[in-house]
Amino acid sequence: MIGKTLKHYRVTGRLGEGGMGAVYVAEDTELGREVALKVLPPEMAGDSDRLQRFRQEARAVAALTHPNIVTIFSVEEAECESPSARSARSGQAVHFITMELVRGRRLTELIGEGGLPIDRLLEFAVPLAEAVAAAHKRGITHRDLKPDNVMVDEEGRVRVLDFGLAKLQPEAGGEIDATVTAEGRILGTIAYMSPEQAQGKAVDPASDVFSLGILLYEMASGERPFRGDNNVSVLTSIMRDTPRPISESSSRPVGHLDQIVGRCLQKDPSERYPTAEELAADLKRLRTALISGDTSVSGVGAAPAVTAPARSKGGQRFVAVGVSILALIVIGLFVGWFANRAKQRNWARTEAIPRIQELREQSSWLEWEERAWEANDLAAEAAKYLGEDPTLEEAWSAVTKPINVTSSPPGAKIFAKVYTDPEADWRKLGTTPLEDFRFPAGTSRLWLVFPDHRSAYDLVFNIGYKGDTWHYDLQREESVPEEMVFIPGAALDLMLPGIDHLEGLETGDHFMDRYEVTNLQYKQFVDEGGYENPDHWEHPFIYEGETLSFETAMERFLDTTGRPGPAGWEVGDYSEGDDDLPVRGITWFEAAAFAKWAGKSLPTIYHWNQVALTWASGSIIPMSNFNGDGPWPIGSERSMNRHGVFDMSGNVREWCLNGIEGREGRFILGGGWDDAGWAFNDAYAQSPWNRQPTNGFRCIKEIDERPELTTAIAMPFRDFYNETPVDDEAFAFFLRQFEYDETSLNATIESEDDQGDWIRQRVSFDAAYGGERMLAWLYVPKTPPPHRTVAYFPGSSAIYAESSEDRTGQRFSHFLKSGRAVIFPIYKGTYERGDELDSDYPAETNFYKEHVIMWAKDLARSIDYLESREEMDTSQLAFYGVSWGGVMGTILPAIETRIQINLLYVAGMLFQRALPEVDQINYVGRVRQPTLMINGEFDFFFPVETSQKPLYELLGTPTGDKKYVVYPGSHSVPRVELVRELLDWLDQYQDR
Questions:
Q1: Cis ω on the peptide bond leading into residue 433 (within 30° of 0)?
Q2: Positive or negative: CA dihedral 864, 866, 867, 870
Q3: 453 backbone dihedrals φ, ψ, rounded to 5°
């Protein structure tokens, strides 16, 4: 939308999201002033309900003229002049409101830890209540009063925003469609709702008074009066609890504010202030009393008097009867409470826990992102009734991972929401430091707020092995360059297949552009003679081994009309209305020159990798601009990376500083709008002279320069299609290294435990080398024998774990419940058999070769053991390899011919080479068993085009007996689909 024109309003920037649409800054070209535009998204304009509420907001605010309410100018409908706009295509009506542009800070940012001093609070509260009172006089109920909808402008004046959920009485502007405000629909922000609003009942001004009471409480204490671990418990608290007095929550004197807020928060609307006008009057009396030092003022916050009934002469008898009645009431309440408690416990066991398990097991990756908070909310609510229940704890632990959030300075407010819904309401988690907080597993957005400091945003990929502590050094507002974000220094593993074997280098603290460099920004460089000044072009122009002069190089950097500029420009300029589109069609040299001119630099692959977080690609890629018609304008909040940087996935490819050792290529990462999603994960490089339309960039500004980060990178990429495996004679020689003497197993069952539908046995037997003992876990179903069998090879986490004791059969439950047994060998270098092995990556070393040989012998001895058990049927033995095990599934089945079926989950070809005797390329074509391959489309370890497809196509399995299945997701696929594919394959080949 930025750069587009709606009628005579030219959109110049984005302010954020309101209750009913995005809010932009625009220039009124007729009157020469800045205004704010609230634009209804086109997908919402087709919803008559939302469109009606959007128009309702306009009518509500237009009816008001008050210094503390944002001024509305007009309600408009127009066609966007630029057909390339994503949010407003030519011929499609755009609905928008023009209103006064208010610059300042939201009340959310001003309420510090412990709340506001009483004088400061009243400075805001009185005009706030007066503004709401003015709305009430016009028959308007706001219905969404909260700190985010109250702005304090640059002059210190309170302004009430966002009447998107306002309810109009007939006298305020006519009848409204009943579907907009009908009873039974809960509209608003849960934490600030009145009891009647929370129940979906009709609301009136008394509902706003309740919301103002919540606001006043939070302003005074820094805490909300009604809290809970989830939406359900917050709603329950609103309808049930009486908050403790502010004077107990605040260390500051609050005068008669307790009484005022107490009256606002009455559950019965008739006991509250009937309108905000009376509330404002009491707040002004309190302010006057504080100024005059008179603390004896009476009547403040008092409810209407209630006359007590006259006492009877037979008072003693009535008291006795009253006590008896009271006792009966207490007994009745106790019985009712007990019955209700039993009902709640039954709900927790029979509904909540099964639903949590269902959400986790039957949700795809993207569905899980959206349902993670629902599962956590259910678990938190169930815990209130079950306490420390083992079954609940198991279900809860499966959907959450405890996190810690700290900040410097401490005391920052922490908010979060699901990653895949950028328009969702922020949930307040607490303040820093936040310790051992149950947080949904998966990907979420985090927001930290602290007065006078730049807000910090982040993408939290809450998976156990990626750590559980997030720390934020909050920066003072004036210390951060405009449109850049602070990135703390870190040494992160490179999560880009092809170079992910490289050690991460410490980046040092730096700033990074929040968005990609735009046409408008690049035009400044062009207009200021950027292509004429050699000082900006500090890198030698090497082309096919020859160094070109500055003048010769500049002849390559021309637009379509032969003028200096990006490849797609004309006459040194871009198309009208494209100010905020990323600049594109430029070489690496041009990107580097712009960065030099701007006093910045291009990011190295280490800087880029640190913020992109390709680990979370399964969540990020579906929110990104891939396979599109063109780039998005900057300002979209859909695809967020770490620290509040946007669109590193898709949109335009981003040039990085590093070159490739021995080649002229430069890295250009993240993929672009015309790429497939897997490009986000790929360590892609191309000629620095390339001017494809997808080429763009962003910049960084280093605080601590680190030249070692800029060195050229040795790239182990392999084109597997052009490699030639060894011949059969050489391969027969390779097979001899896996032979061993068939000596006695000396097997023993060391322990056995019942795990419900199956028995887990810890078994040990002699290894095929070194006089060692092997350990394995055997999972035996309780169904009648014989049992078809599956041999498992784990992922690389097995290398780093010290014990396998907690490896229950739950991960194999689908095999076990179908009557199949599973053996889980503890391979050399893993778990209890750990040694110097510290990586699953191949290496051209004897150490790696010897381990592959031992893994093959460990698998063979495990099969020997299965054959020694009469109840095991190994005639159709299946191999099941996951991740690292999937890689080994391209080698071990070519060695061990007793394997009849091959199951590979998230597998691919690895770019790192091994010695020929154990290299994948020499084995994959000799794997001939029926093979099922199940992968994620956005896998960061095994990219689709360069790793997954080569494995599938190079397999020696006949075409009719191999299957390759890809699901949306990263290094995983949805459990339900995984189980279905695995069992269908086994049913087809193992039970035929």
A1: yes
A2: positive
A3: -125, 155
User: Distance (Å, rounded) from C-alpha 498 to C-alpha 682?
Assistant: 7
Which residues fall within 8 angstroms of residue 667, CB to CB, at 6 or more apart? 605, 655, 656, 658, 659, 660, 683, 684, 685, 713
pLDDT at 312 over 70: no
Q: Which residues are catalytic?
A: 144
113's CB contacts (< 8 A; 6+ apart) are 222, 411, 431
Which residue's entry shows tokens 């504080």?
Answer: 290
Highest mean pLDDT, choosing among 239-253, 430-444, 583-597: 583-597
CA angle 647, 515, 669 (to 5 degrees): 50
For residue 619, give the DSSP letter. Answer: H
Calculate the CA dihedral of residues 244, 250, 254, 259 and round it to 10 degrees.
Answer: -10
Residue with tokens 């209804």: 40
Task: Enter the tokens of residue 903.
Answer: 């199951």
**CATH 3.40.50.1820 boundaries in the chain:** 722-989
How many angstroms separate the CA atoms of 449 and 109, rounded?
6
Task: Give which of 380, 417, 412, 384 is closest to 395, Cα–Cα.
Answer: 380
Hey, is 911 helix, strand or coil?
coil
For the CA atoms of 429, 435, 440, 443, the dihedral, rounded to the nearest 10 degrees, stands at 90
Distance between CA atoms of residues 394 and 697, nearest Å: 46
Q: If you search the block for the tokens 């046409």, which residue do you land on?
A: 519
**Rounded Cα distance, 710 and 661, in Å:** 12
Q: Give the residue ranges of DSSP H helices in 805-868.
A: 813-817, 846-867
Secondary structure of 947-987 in HEC code, one letter for each residue: HHHHHHHHCCCCHHHEEEEEECCCCCCCHHHHHHHHHHHHH
| Residue 653: other Cβ atoms inside 10 A | 26
Between 787 and 252, whose confidence is greater? 787
Distance between CA atoms of residues 982 and 972, nearest Å = 14
- What is d(CA 140, CA 145) in angstroms, rounded to the nearest whole number? 13
Amino acid at 804: S
Name every residue whose Cβ is closer than 8 Å to that of residue 382 and which is 6 or more positions away in sequence: 347, 348, 352, 353, 356, 389, 392
User: Percent of the chain, pLDDT > 70?
Assistant: 86
Q: Give CATH for domain 365-479.
A: 2.60.40
Q: Was domain 722-989 assigned CATH 3.40.50.1820? A: yes
Run of H or E residues at 873: strand 872-882
Q: Cα angle vertex 966, ends 960, 967, to 5°?
A: 145
Q: In this structure, how many other beta carbons lie within 10 angstroms of the beta carbon of residue 305?
A: 6
Kindly report which listed range (274-283, 328-337, 522-531, 682-691) carries the lowest average pLDDT score.
328-337
Would residue 400 be called left, alpha or beta, if left means φ above 0 and alpha means ψ between -120 and 50 degrees? beta
Selecting from 3.90.1150.10, 3.40.30.10, 3.90.1580.10, 2.130.10.10, what CATH number does the domain 510-717 have?
Answer: 3.90.1580.10
Q: Which amino acid is at 703?
A: I
Tokens of 949: 């497809």
Q: Which helix H or strand E contains 429, and what residues bound it?
A: strand 427-431
Whether residue 172 is predicted with pLDDT greater than 50 in this model: the reply is: no
CATH superfamily of 105-292: Transferase(Phosphotransferase) domain 1 (1.10.510.10)
SS3 810: helix
In this structure, the dihedral spanned by the alpha carbons of residues 599, 603, 607 and 611, taken in order and rounded to 10 degrees, is 100
69 in Cβ contact with 134 (< 8 Å):
yes
Q: Are 759 and 782 in contact (CB under 8 A)?
A: yes
> Which of 275, 328, 323, 283 shows the shortest CA–CA distance to 301?
283
Gap between the Cα atoms of 903 and 365, Å rounded: 21
- Strands (E) located in 506-548: 510-513, 541-543, 546-548
> What's the distance, Cα to Cα, between the start and end of the chain in Å?
59
Task: Enter the tokens of residue 881.
Answer: 């390899």
Q: What is residue 314's predicted lDDT score, i.e. its pLDDT?
A: 41
- Of 343-352, 754-763, 967-976, give the lowest mean pLDDT range: 967-976
Instruction: Read off the amino acid at residue 851.
Output: H
Q: pLDDT-derived band of residue 81, with 50, 70 and 90 as boundaries?
A: low
